Amino acid sequence: MKASIVLLPGDGIGPEITQQAKRVLEAIGDRFGHEFTFQSQLIGGIAIDETGDPLPEATIQACRDSDAILLGAVGGPKWDDPSAKTRPEAGLLKIRKELGLFANLRPIKLFNQLIDASPLRREIIEGTDILFLRELTGGIYFGESSRTGSGPDETASQAMVYSVREVERIVRLAAQAAKGRGNRLTSVDKANVLEPSRLWRQTAARVMAEEFPEVQYDVVLVDAMAMHLINRPSDFDVVVTGNMFGDILTDEASMLPGSLGMLPSASLGSGGPGLYEPIHGSAPDIAGKGIANPLATILAAAMLLRHSLNAETEAAAIEKAVADVLAAGLRTADIARGGPSVSTDAMGDAVVDQIKQ
Ligand code: NAD
Ligand code: IPM
Ligand code: MN
């Protein structure tokens, strides 16, 4: 197979972890006889510094022309001034919107080898295997915003908007995913307070009743969900929710497997190239130290193979290699719980070596 992959390393630890995921993809190419070509493009703070734009047109074009996109992370204190004209994060939101990537798949799967890396007790987290589907191109992230007035009367607002169409398509995808696994779907909203959540709840209930009567379906309010995730995570199968709730709940859920540094994601739309990234950010507190965990990005590369290149065997080979290096005791600092730890590069080397075997 031939495939062209755009790398968007971005800021902070982004370049460090993307480099390791690229090496892993190259090792997969060698082992399975595929020809992957890579090109790096600018996004985020580094793109602002070099071009004034967090998502230059050349990046969008290269992404459109590619088979799949692998992103590190964007953002950092250098670009955090609240009165700045633009922000690194705007580049990420724009690429999601431009490519129509409305569905963000965030699997929360435990590696048994890491069960003691979680701050939660083994009895609670054992058996956890949740697939979050976070709506990614609508909701409050993309609502109209404004700032008016001055002094104590200055106000700011941002609208939360969802259309029936937007809810239908993400719920359908989530229900289809549920059919392929535990056949259970939970929709999370705040329908007791927010109008868009009431539209979300009504639409989801209709789609489920009309199109997926065989899938077990329930609804949970987002505040209660935050609690259930910690108390009884293994009760959930597929969870579908809006953009902001999905952002928050999945960072919370990352503590079940033990670290944000372990969690990959896939952003998919209807047809074009998918975008794959860790769910974590640019981790400015550890950037440049060579200690970031590259496994989330390496596992995102596995999702890229599975969802964009239809290469299930190759994806599974990466996931097995990761499980094997964990079983051998290798840990980056975030999952070492104070024990001995290895560098970003050493973790990448170990996964590459496993794949070569
Ligand atoms: P963060 O996810 O970057 O970091 C949170 C904590 O997790 C930090 O202590 C960090 O060191 C740790 N961490 C994250 N990834 C890790 C890894 N791979 N290995 C080891 N430890 C890891 O969140 P933040 O600090 O709130 O945000 C920093 C910047 O990243 C902000 O500018 C934010 O906007 C941006 N951000 C970008 C993305 C993205 O590009 N997709 C996602 C989230 C945050
Ligand atoms: C994520 C990040 C982004 C989001 C930011 C950086 C725009 O937190 O990918 O989870 O909120 O979607
Ligand atoms: Mn986030």
Structure, described:
Substrate binds at residues 96, 106, 134, 223. Mg(2+) binds at residues 223, 247, 251. The protein has 357 residues and is an alpha/beta fold. The chain has 2 domains: 1-107 and 260-357, Isopropylmalate Dehydrogenase, CATH 3.40.718.10; 119-256, Isopropylmalate Dehydrogenase. It contains 13 helices and 12 strands. The two termini are 21 Å apart. The mean pLDDT is 97. The structure holds nicotinamide-adenine-dinucleotide, 3-isopropylmalic acid and manganese (II) ion (MN). The site of nicotinamide-adenine-dinucleotide (NAD) has 22 residues, from helix 4.
Walk me through the topology.
Blueprint: E1 2-10, H1 14-32, E2 35-40, H2 45-51, H3 57-64, E3 68-73, H4 88-98, E4 103-109, H5 122-125, E5 129-135, E6 145-148, E7 155-158, H6 164-179, E8 184-189, H7 195-211, E9 216-221, H8 222-231, E10 238-241, H9 243-253, E11 264-268, E12 274-278, H10 295-307, H11 312-327, H12 333-336, H13 344-356
Bound molecules: nicotinamide-adenine-dinucleotide, 3-isopropylmalic acid (IPM) and manganese (II) ion (MN).
Structural domain tally: 2
Number of helices, counting only DSSP H or I runs of 4 residues or more: 13
The CATH architecture category of the largest domain equals: 3-Layer(aba) Sandwich
CATH superfamily of the largest domain: Isopropylmalate Dehydrogenase
- Total strands: the figure is 12
| CA-atom Rg in angstroms | 20 Å
Order of helices and strands: EHEHHEHEHEEEHEHEHEHEEHHHH
What percent strand? 15-25%
CATH topology of the largest domain, which one?
Answer: Isopropylmalate Dehydrogenase
Helical fraction: 40-55%
Main location: cytoplasm
GO biological process, one term: L-leucine biosynthetic process
InterPro entries: IsoCit/isopropylmalate_DH_CS, IsoPropMal-DH-like_dom, Isopropylmalate_DH
Subcellular location: Cytoplasm
